[in-house]
Specification:
single chain, alpha/beta, eight-stranded mixed beta sheet, five-stranded antiparallel beta sheet, about 35% helix
Length: about 350
């Protein structure tokens, strides 16, 4: 992950056996752009589009090329974009799997498991695969955008080996703020922009990019409440979560969800984070934010993004937090570990 555009042409970066439709206005990428796509694992590319016509240019031909090559295709888009794409695919739409981004992707940490399950199904059946996703939307909050970029970075680490498969992430270029636009170039080996596919030297260049997994999360100011805890205090942590959640207007089910999520993370602090931790609470931009910090170091950067093996009994806490909360932000470095869990206040 690091610094920009080495040359190459075209948007369709053809894998062996791909059929590129000739009506596409963009040529086939070759040379360095193709080599950067990661032939042994994920071939991860970004497509910067402009307007509805640009969106369909970024998605329709890519999907049809996959179907022509007899590949499995998964599309993860918000409902409006899904409807636009479906309307252009004709009878071929029956061969495409769709997931609703608004359902599974508000917390971007849930997206990687969805892609993993898709790839594992293809591997089991011996089929080639490709996908289309749009993780960033204009209505996303600043914390959600940070997690989208972390998700994009971690995709490259989660699929480093066989099987080879292709993922095209589409972005509405005029809606991107400068930091997010820069993050797109730093998390994708290939970026299609203005009709040209370019191998991004920011992806693995000479200038290092700060590790998003180890960054400091933004300061939220003085917390509304704070509690230091040890092994004997987990009941107090649960009571504090319940009090804060009810005060924020969460319904009983969501109070229970947040209580369980924070309890699981706090238990991880006791077991793996030095035996102690601190939980803090804020009301921020309509969300209740519960943060658990400890002195531990998370060495598995994909923690919480793999479905845990119930027989082994480990890895459950962060997975549950990601499934139960609207957004989870995990950061870890030699300075310690921070887990921020967001729940929208008063949401039913």
């Amino acid at each position: 992950m690091r610094p920009d555009h080495a040359g190459a042409t075209g948007s369709e970066i053809a894998a062996p056996g791909d059929v590129v439709k000739r009506e596409s206005p963009l040529a086939v990428a070759t040379g360095s752009a193709l080599a950067s796509a990661g032939a042994d694992g994920i071939r991860h590319e970004a497509f910067l589009y402009r307007g509805d016509v640009g969106f369909l240019s970024a998605t329709r031909d890519f999907v049809l090329a996959g179907l022509a090559a007899d590949e499995d295709v998964l599309v993860v888009l918000p409902p409006q974009r899904t409807a636009q794409l479906r309307a252009t695919l004709g009878r071929a739409v029956k061969r495409v799997e769709f997931l609703d981004l608004d359902e599974i992707g508000r917390n971007p940490a849930r997206l990687l498991p969805a892609w993993r399950e898709f790839v594992e199904r293809g591997l089991t059946s011996g089929r080639s695969m490709r996908g289309v996703g749009e993780p960033v939307r204009p209505e996303r909050s600043a914390p959600e955008l940070r997690e989208c970029l972390l998700h994009e970075a971690l995709l490259n680490e989660a699929f480093v080996g066989p099987p080879s498969w292709r993922l095209r992430c589409v972005y509405e270029a005029p809606a991107l703020d400068p930091d997010t636009a820069e993050g797109v170039w730093r998390t994708h080996p290939v970026v299609v922009d203005g009709g040209f596919a370019r191998a991004s030297t920011r992806w693995r260049g000479e200038q290092a990019w700060a590790d998003p997994f180890a960054e400091r999360l933004p300061d939220l100011g003085p917390p509304a409440a704070e509690l230091a805890f040890g092994p004997a205090d987990l009941g107090l942590v649960r009571a504090a979560v319940t009090h804060a959640a009810r005060g924020e207007g969460l319904d009983s089910d969501r109070v229970d969800d947040l209580e369980l999520a924070v309890h699981e993370v706090a238990t991880n602090s006791v077991r793996h984070g030095g035996g102690r931790g601190t939980v803090r609470f804020w009301s921020a931009a309509g969300d209740l934010v519960c943060e658990v910090t400890d002195a531990g170091l998370v060495t598995d950067r994909l923690a919480g993004r793999r479905r845990p093996d119930l027989e082994l009994g480990g890895g459950r806490g962060l997975w549950l937090a990601n499934q139960l909360c609207d957004l989870v932000q995990l950061r870890s470095s030699a300075a310690g570990t921070v887990v921020r869990m967001h729940m929208a206040g008063g949401r039913g």
